[in-house]
Amino acid sequence: MPQGEANPPDPRGSGRRAEFEALHQQHSREVWALAYARWMDSDLALDITQEAFLRLWKHWEAGAEDIQNPRAWLLRVARNLAEDYAKSAFRRNGTQPPELLNGVRSSQPLPADEMERQEQFAQLRAVLDELAPADREILTLRYALDYDANTIAERLNIAVTAVHMRLSRARQRLAERLTTHGDFAPGEPTGETQA
């Protein structure tokens, strides 16, 4: 997870630095996960996270006091940065970041179990990568960050009923893609069914 950001000069003494460090400690994982959900690239997500926190610091350094909810502000900036990346010339020209990671490795599984798990995880990631960014985002918020529907609604600024509908549709699209990729049988669980 993103940690160890360089200590910038404190525009208003040690109080502001302590507040910044506390915000980073509390929210860097969440900001990173939001960016990761959009691009499925841990390095890019880290870059977006660092840029969001840097922009918060610069905003404070400029003397701005208008951020009443820094967490929401950081999440909005990260979401906008992820979208800006999609619009950039780098993305339009077809240059892609390095290939996706093969998965998280557990401590001591049997080699055959680890290999099977990695194959399934790689397949799931490939299928997730085929989904629309909005589907990946809502699935990540629900299942990777374990947010409930109310929290997701707040983060995405949509109604709770819309969260349920988007989750249902995203799960359905995920299940359809998993079954067409072969190893997942139609009745096999692919995750929770309720938000």
TrEMBL record:
Residues 23-89 form the RNA polymerase sigma-70 region domain. It comes from Gemmata obscuriglobus. Keywords: DNA-binding, Sigma factor, Transcription, Transcription regulation. Residues 123-174 form the RNA polymerase sigma factor 70 region 4 type domain. CDD domains: Sigma70_r4 (cd06171). The lineage of its organism: Bacteria, Pseudomonadati, Planctomycetota, Planctomycetia, Gemmatales. One of its GO terms (biological process) is DNA-templated transcription initiation. This is Sigma-70 family RNA polymerase sigma factor. One of its GO terms (molecular function) is DNA binding. The keyword Transcription applies. The keyword Metal-binding does not apply.
